Amino acid sequence: MRLSIKQSIAIVFAGVVVAGLGIQRTTAQEPDVEYTAVTDERLRSPAPEDWLMYRGTYDSWGYSPLDQITKDNVATLEPVWTLSTGVTSGHQSPPIVNDGIMFVTTPEDQVLAVDARSGELIWRYRKQLPEGTLRAHWTNRGVGLYGDRVFYTTHDAFVVALDARTGDVEWEASVADYRSGYYMTMAPLIANGKVLVGASGGERGIRGFVAAYDADTGQEVWRSHTVPGPGEPGNETWPGDTWQTGGASIWITGSFDPELNLTYWGTGNPGPWIGDQRPGDNLYTNSVVAFDADTGELKAYHQYHHNGSWDWDEVSAPLLIDVPRDGRTIKSLVHPARNGYLWLLEREANAINFVDANPYVDQNVFLSIDPVTGRPEYDSERKPGTNKPATFCPSLWGGKDWPPAAYSPQTGYLYIPANENLCSTMVGREVEYRPGASYTGASSQVFVSDGADHVGEIQAWDLSTGEQVWTHEFPESQNWGPILTTGGGLVFSGGTHDRYFRAFDAETGDLLWEQRTNSGVTGVPSSYAIDGVQYIAVQSGWGVDAQGMQRAVNTHLERNIQVPQGGVIWVFALRR
Fold it and tell me: What is the CATH number that goes with domain 2-574?
């Protein structure tokens, strides 16, 4: 149904601030906004014209079936509007679009509602954070939509529900104590009328979890920890009380299988970073975990690597893909991991089974992988220890960090934003836990491999054969570009320090179009349509880890490449 409010007066005062709520509006009164409610049915089968969640659909494909923009005409793609966000640092969230209304989050815990056709700002909300709030990753990765509300998470570990038409706060719930190192940047996952969120802070000794809140009331429905406590399966993999500070952060929005009613989440590094300070497998760090969407019961897990000692978080949610392989169709969880391996797992109601894993970048830590369990065997010389340095590839940022891969059902290919030829040297030190303080217990250096001719890549993998089919290399830059695939046979991505946003042929990898933007593009792209016109939308705004990697590469190669700061929403359409 459509929800609307009465006609407001014409715009008279631009930028009116509503005291105490952090809302800035484009009108003196409430804006005249018609809004289409988001239902469970719409989330399970979204219209091609909308982009209702972090990766577009519950399976996390990052795929839009819209096909007006094609290989043949993409060269005429041009900007149709832009909007400055007013802040700097890493702009990483996707433009979420519901029936012509766009919602974008930015650094500094800001939410913007925008007319997706014109770029006119409807309202702006910014949460007032307590003094001393930790800002480890000063970004935000987007909103969730349900009913007539917009949900997002904050750096002081709240989940906030806003009225989609006005930006007014409907409810807010404290999820964890930010003073103990917890913070939140992820876009909520909406499943069965619940708002599912998780907390970050593994570098500060938090104990990770996923929690669900009633979308109407804000009441907590369930909470399940990603580090098991006493009496819970897996607690025996933590010595003593180390589980209390075990990490396993949730950074990125999970996937959801409505048929199995299971949500799948990637978990982060253990705390501290160095494994000899917490002997054992340290479940469920660096894993995919499956929770019942209604109860939070842990149904299954797979740990990509045990006793993690390289800061290889595996926080990206797996893509849910039916993969034809060896004469059968596998209901798969596909994960290009930070540890440099591409994992193919099989999902069942009460199990996650190992199918296959192969390196997609140079990886010198794993000696072998058990063909039944998928458990890796390590080269001990490549594993850092306390007062024991080790050099390993890929670097601590991994073969792929948080930027999501994408899948195209047209080609059957998975597209990975990768970084090759980067390695790290890391050494551990004794560290004492103090609430809210750094708890890594390690120092590291990142360097470019000798003889390397490039770092950044986009790779395409045929999942039916398990083979890489093409690679586009970026000779001068790393790649921090999330990927979008479309029904027009295209792959869209940014991620390089030259500030370009690009389109590639999904079948061949040929570069077909590029547009330089104000800053580096680390935002998640999306696509939507209004009145028969297809749009491509993305945020440009360099910062956080992309900027950190730039500094490391600059230092090693004795360069001084600087990427301009500042956030802008860019929207493109075909030239008319």
Answer: 2.140.10.10
